[in-house]
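Anyone else keep sequences and structure tokens together like this?

Example one:
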Amino acid sequence: SVPVLLSPSVNMGRMHTPGKGIAASALPYKRSPPAWLKVSAKEVEAQVAKFAKKGLSPSQIGVILRDSHAIAQVKSVTGNKILRLLKKAGLAPALPEDLYHLIKKAVAVRKHLDKNRKDKDAKFRLILIESRVHRLARYYKRTRQLPPNWKYESSTASTLVA
């Protein structure tokens, strides 16, 4: 029998769609900060903490630092990622960001379903969204980023994202 060779570009597909997208931004090969960047690690850490105290999420902080302060990669300047800096300062969000946004989406779809009871597609999509929430919560419990007794409940979900 002839062995079946898989091409190296076989990607794991997305969970509830047929897409196998590979779009991503490419990080620079050089891990050191650019020579023209005259900002110290302490200053960047202070800026990250300042933005977190304003209530911004780690990805929003990264976008602001990239677009307004010309700091392309916080990790190259400080040696730590934004979330690690926030955890060190005790400013990390209670819920992981991706889980927070999935819960927020589920709350929005549920609110839509309260007004539009016959929307069968929205009901189906809500089931898919909530299954992703449960899967992600299971992962975060396993990696101890969520307490083991944490549970997603649709009735109390709106208070989590309020």
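And example two:
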Amino acid sequence: EGGRGAAGSGGDFGEAARSTMEDELRALRENLRVAEDKVLDCQSVRDMFAKETDMYRSELKITRDERARLEEDLQKAQEKLRDLKAGQSSGDPGSSQQGVIQAMQKDFDARMERYQDEVKYLRQKCDEKEKRCEHLLAERASLAGELRSAG
């Protein structure tokens, strides 16, 4: 009977160890599932930010193209102004011509300032999105490392 008692208590110890191992296994599986969910969330956020970054880059390109067109318009207007000044026999342009030139210059300056602000804003947004993507990639790498060390 002494042998049976020892075997019985050894069996209880084995059951307890097995139960503990199963609990640990369940906890590790749960941790793995949570980490995989976080990785999937990070990937979807990264993809969303990538799309937004592409959109901002497209807007920036359009704005740059518009700026180039406006600069070209300014050069043409300045050439017209030089031609008017050169073609005049008296020295001062007519008040209506000068008013038109000043209005064109003010309009161009306003547009240029607005587009510069827009370009600045778009660049800042692109930078923010790129930093966020870098952060998400680092978090993803960290979670992948945790997964490897847990598994």
